Amino acid sequence: MSRQRWIYAGFLVLLMLGPIILPEFYVTLLNYIGLYAIVALGLVLLTGVGGLTSFGQAAFVGLGAYTTAYLTTATELSAWLAPFGQSPWLALLVGLVLTALVAFVLGALTLRLSGHYLPLGTIAWGISIYFLFGNLEFLGGHTGITGIPSLSLLGLELKLGRDFYFLIWIALLAAVWLTQNLLDSREGRAIRALKGGTLMAEAMGVNTARSKIVIFLIAALYACISGWLYAHLQRFVNPTPFSLHIGIEYLFMAVLGGAAHVWGALLGAGVITILKQWLQDFLPKILGSSGNFEVIVFGLMMVLILQRARDGLWPILARFVPNVAEKGSQRQISQAEPLPKKASLQAGNKLLEVGDVVKKFGGLVACNRMNLSVQSGEVLALIGPNGAGKSTMFNCISGVDPASSGEIHFLGERIDQLNSREIARRGMSRTFQHVRLLPAMSVLENVAIGAHLRGSKGVLSALLHLDRVEEKRLMAEAARQIERVGLTQHMFDQAGSLPLGQQRILEIARALAADPLLLLLDEPAAGLRYLEKQALADLLRRLRAEGMGILLVEHDVDFVMGLADRVVVMEFGEKIAEGLPEQVQKNPAVLEAYLGGVA
Predict the structure, then answer these.
(1) 395-449: per-residue pLDDT in tens?
(2) CATH architecture for segment(s) 24-318
(3) Which residue from 14, 31, 169, 456 puts its CA 20 to 30 A from 330's CA?
(4) pTM over 0.70
(5) Smallest Cα–Cα separation from 61: which of 187, 223, 259?
């Protein structure tokens, strides 16, 4: 057994012994740590992994608590609700459905926001729901609801904290297992790609709007379960534990523990809960007066954490727990069945045709009546001075910035009205002028994002670990593309640790993982040394020989002229020349605009 497994086994043993050997006070403390950790775990997924900051999770905790409190204590319920009031477990189902509906509506409205508007939006609805709890008479107003029944499980009534202990921690460990399963999957990579920006993720076929809603719903459902457990543990609820202040505290737990790490939620909840209790006991004695002095300490702690350990405390502890051996990952990859591929086209088939494309940004015309075409088995180079409109043309073709007018056809189908995700699905893949990778993820995982559209397993399959066969095939495909571009020795390295030249090669591997018929490369040789450029040229020649079409933007004229079959030259958004490399090199307009003029 590895050291990592021994540590996990020891942790589980200590958890099981907790209610047996610890006094009641510490069992209660562990219960609250478990409850808070469930909410913080949702924030790890939402904020740490997905990059979506939320201050309103306490409101979802309140939805779970108030739903079960109302259903299990109300004397008169409507006919369709009455059956759900007979059991707290049925009330949990209602709470989950209600929370999912509310979260879906709030997410559809809030997740459209970006920058500082998103957290402000979560503050707004968090405050609104909090005051809703306090102003509805049937929920007891600010006084709350009492007399909530205890839970019964397998004939055992859970009245005391010791009885509740195992239920809380089983729920937390189940949530940890589900979350780890999700992140270790195709859907999980799509979620992690959100931090890299929607531009790259959409170009790789990820439905970013759907991924945002998914993690928003999961985080809300985790909070609902925590609220349900809290209500039956306390057997009383009022609005106070579901205020904005508590929502901020949940976020603090996630950040302190390690917002991008699953186990960071548990660590953060434990540190904050224990420290809060300790400070509440000792600070009044030290200062000679009572008050919420712990809030001041937490504020100072947050500043120090953001300065000294922005990734939280968990990565510091995780240094002592080795990762799974790479050998095992390589063995799984080598045994996986290859993914199906698109049928190759014979050389000379027209892949792309751009007709009279115009792209305007206000009064600026970035591309003016551009025309070009790419055939299978051909490398077409698009060159021109800085600001000529080459990358804008790329963005129009790939659906990132739709053309203002004109038509773009791919494989005979008009695509200028499609988004980048739908264009990628049809067999076009691209790299970017400015490298867009996920630096904290491995080279293998970054490339696997490119194969997103070649998988089909959804979120439920990922959560329950039912996607393992497909996952092995996706990772095997990513490994093949890494080997194809010559980065095998860096397969398990973090992408951010590679030099710029290798990062550009990595982007090509990611694009190839999508199994494209047309490859769009935006300055792929920038930052590469001479031998790396030669290796890149050899790779592109092999792809061309396999029937792939390549549209290439590049500033290295020698690299382009030695590789391209045809060259299109742009200046000020317009095409000024097109032809064979040797013809373009002699064109007076090109010499004047791009190559420095006639000697």
Answers:
(1) 999 998 899 999 999 999 999 999 999 999 999 999 998 899 999 899 999 999 9
(2) Orthogonal Bundle (1.10)
(3) 456
(4) yes
(5) 223
